[in-house]
Amino acid sequence: MNPKPLSSASTYTQGHSAAVVASHASRTVENSAAFLLPHLKPHFTVVDLGCGPGTITKGFCPHVADGSVIGIDAAESVIELARAGASEKEYPNLRFCVGDITARLPLDDNSVDVVYTSQVLYHIPAPVRVIKEALRVLKPGGMLAMRETDTLIYHPANAGTEAFTATMARAVSPGAQGIGSGRRIHLWAQQAGFERSKMQVRAGATCHPAPDESRWWANIQVERLQGEIGRKWLEELKIVHNQAEIDAMAAGLKAWGDSPEAWYVAVQGEVICWK
Ligand SMILES: C[S@@+](CC[C@H](N)C(=O)[O-])C[C@H]1O[C@@H](n2cnc3c(N)ncnc32)[C@H](O)[C@@H]1O
Fold it and tell me: What are the residue boundaries of the Methyltransferase domain, all occurrences included (predicted)?
């Protein structure tokens, strides 16, 4: 295996502001790849497609101590962050590279034990193409493990959280599935050539309840709205008409976060496909 630099192209519409990266960086192997961990063996090679800031990626390293881990992401800035958060001394079997996962992956046929995705196929207009590449690079018996969002629940909902959730659903790249991806990833895998009889099709959830986690989550979303994402929704994507709509979403999120009943759940499709 010889990872080379790839061209960088992304259909990711969320940007990489501090608030966005903070929400990605809260992800770990424990909260985002628990369904895969029992299947890892120390000599395995793991490739994390669309790895973001690499907090999940580096978490694979101790599980494959005699193997290696590669994180690939289209955003140079986020790959720099990932590298900065994982010293070579602490993670000698880890590499990050910039690349477009919708292009041919810089990996030989039948060379990888595990390909992993988290919240990435959600943003990609042609996920089947990415899954076909995963199938190509996996060794016979290797695994593709995908964790992709299906449904977002804010309880107790208010007009602001409802508007925010509906706008998030529309804010993906044209053609990308976005919300509803979790229930489809096993179907995409079949279209790409994986066999249904060699799949584990499950679902998991991310939960941020009151009081502390709901406030933390609400603050991250409000920062996103008041920064890069709010601007993008308003000026570029034009899926929000005016600043007042953004302010109303932010107020709703804050009120939700402060509610003693606050409970946020993201339902995730969690699927493993064996080659
Ligand atoms: C929602 S983040 C998920 C990051 C990480 N996997 C996680 O779960 O925290 C999606 C990431 O996919 C990357 N991405 C989107 N399209 C991509 C593409 N075509 N090639 C490589 N990376 C891509 C984005 O840059 C972003 O960092």
Answer: 41-152
